[in-house]
Amino acid sequence: MTRSILLGPPGSGKGTQAQRLANLYQIPHISTGDLLREAVANETELGKKAKEYMDSGNLVPDETILGMVRDRLDQPDAKAGWILDGFPRSVSQAEFLDKLLQEISQELDIAINLDVPDDIVVSRMLGRGRADDNEETIRRRLEVYREQTAPTIDYYSDRDKLVSVDGDRDVDEVTAALQAAIAS
Ligand code: AMP
Known about the structure:
Elements: E1 3-7, H1 14-25, E2 29-31, H2 32-41, H3 45-56, H4 62-73, E3 82-85, H5 91-103, E4 110-115, H6 118-128, H7 135-149, H8 151-158, E5 162-166, H9 171-183
Parallel strand pairs: 1-3, 1-4, 2-3, 4-5
Helix pairs in contact: 2-3
Bound molecules: adenosine monophosphate.
């Protein structure tokens, strides 16, 4: 079992890899992006609040995200471990997660930074055809990543919880490297 975070820019392959790891370890893949898209599709109150932020490539405010993450980690299947994907997306979310894990007596094993060069992430995002994958939104999401999300790499490094994995390789090789990082 493991409790791990996958960090990395949009288009780094986080989602694919997180799902593979979740299958291997038989634990939930918790993607805040997926949870939000589901809420938007179901037209819930939360989805209505989140939609405009997602469409413009900005972060959905913490007041909407944090309760959603707390509820998800509270589900029985998350007792056995989890892979977090797309959360935390800022230092304030990382601090929230630390407090939450303390409250529920769980410990984070590792945060893995999936390292992929900028030109590769842009071409991957343009290729996947998601609703928020137009060029302008992609540019904004990368900006938001650099300004707000990249500082979480130092946050986990300062706490000796960070490992970097080269994500610019064959999918199977990346999965193997992630498994090795989790086992270390
Ligand atoms: P993703 O599927 O992780 O690329 O997320 C898609 C969009 O959902 C992002 O561009 C944000 O608008 C929103 N989102 C996902 N996760 C978070 C988060 N942890 N905090 C704020 N917004 C988020």
